[in-house]
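Design job #97: recover the sequence.
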């Protein structure tokens, strides 16, 4: 696998090993500020369902569940899922599952898919697979809420950035862009994040 315009291929990241080693600098022990602000402004639809692919330890998923969504949270690291279940136990509308969103997305469809740190973590040549899984995961009229990192794409290891051209090319064939804005962010991410709201026709 070669990244366009990049030097030698980076070694694939072993996410399970990173969680086992507690080498998880992306984990802030809080939901994304942009998600908190958006959910404060947008009431949860009655019976609304949400999917958080690449959920990690589950802070964003827990926030959506606390906001009223029937929330499914997916991660390919069994250790991450175990930590999430320990941190947020016994919540009836929050379900953590081990799984690979790119290869085996959930069979059900959702009213909302929230993206924060999965898209930037996958190899660049798997981003079309991400778009396909996303398309299969949204109900008609469903929403894709995403925080993307507008940093360089070609790096030795994640996070791999993106830009407006790539985002538009990937998602506009099946989604309608409703809004783009600069979200409130964690202190070490000033100027790096853009937030998008897309709708499935």
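Job complete. Output follows.
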């Amino acid at each position: 696998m070669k990244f366009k315009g990049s030097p030698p291929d980076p070694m694939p990241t072993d996410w399970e090993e990173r969680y086992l080693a507690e080498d998880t600098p992306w984990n802030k022990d809080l939901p994304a500020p942009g998600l908190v602000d958006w959910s404060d402004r947008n009431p949860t639809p009655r019976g609304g369902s949400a999917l958080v692919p690449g959920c990690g330890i589950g802070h964003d998923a827990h926030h959506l569940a606390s906001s009223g969504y029937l929330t499914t949270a997916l991660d390919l690291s069994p250790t991450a899922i175990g930590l999430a279940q320990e941190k947020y136990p016994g919540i009836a509308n929050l379900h953590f599952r081990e799984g690979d969103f790119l290869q085996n997305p959930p069979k059900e469809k959702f009213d909302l898919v929230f993206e924060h740190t999965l898209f930037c973590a996958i190899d660049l040549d798997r981003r079309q697979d991400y778009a396909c899984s996303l398309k299969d995961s949204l109900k008609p009229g469903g929403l894709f809420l995403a925080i993307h990192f507008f940093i360089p794409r070609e790096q030795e290891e994640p996070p791999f950035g993106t830009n407006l051209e790539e985002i538009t090319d990937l998602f506009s064939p099946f989604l309608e862009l409703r809004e783009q804005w600069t979200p409130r962010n964690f202190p070490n991410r000033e100027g790096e994040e853009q937030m998008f709201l897309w709708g499935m026709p």
